[in-house]
Every structure is written in structure tokens, then in C-alpha cells.
Amino acid sequence: MDAGVNKDNCSSLPQHPLTITNFNYGDPYNPPISLSSFGEESQMLMIFMKCANPVKSPFYVNTAPCINGTYSYVLIKSNITYVENLCKLELIAISSMPIKDYRNISYMDIHNRLAYGFELS
Fold this sequence. Notes:
Elements: E1 44-51, E2 60-62, E3 72-75, E4 87-95, H1 107-116
Antiparallel strand pairs: 1-3, 1-4, 2-3
């Protein structure tokens, strides 16, 4: 867990987030994300975005009221085709806490995964 993430403060964010330079083609944390034996995704890539306009997409989770900023979202499916026009990447975080269903995820679910962090093997 990053020391910047406080489980009891949903506006807290990692102090040492990942950037695109932390990834290379073929890394295990790049899509497609592997599945565990339970059919859950074994890690979750969370991409924090700021957008110039509101986004209506099932892959974007609104960060309000936890994170101030107009049109602030977390992109929870990391395919580049899901990036909307006029959206800027703010930070990337990984969690190894499995997720079964992206369709009903809230920002508090995402923040709990930030607080959980990720496991290295």
C-alpha cells in the first residue's frame, strides 16, 4: 500500500503513482489481465482521468464527492479504445484485490482497492 492512501479518507491518493513509463509491452499488468481460478480478474488497473466534458461510459467511475475537480473519473477497463476525447491521464494505480463485476463498482470500492495495494510475486 502507498503511504499516501488513507483507508478512512476517500480523497487520499497514492504519493508514488505509476506512470506509463512503468510499463512495457508484454508486462504481466498490461491487458489482457489474467483470470484467477475463480473467474475473477487477478489485478485491477485503475487509471485516474480528468476530462474536459462529462463522460457517460460504464468504464468511467465518477470520483465525486471524494476528489474535487470537474469531470474527474477512474477508468476501470484499461483498453485504449475506452479513453474519451479531451481526457487526460492523471495517475495509474494497481490493486491485486480481485473484482468480479465492473458494472456495479463505486468509487469507494476503487478506493478500498487503492488502500489494499498490490502483491508482488
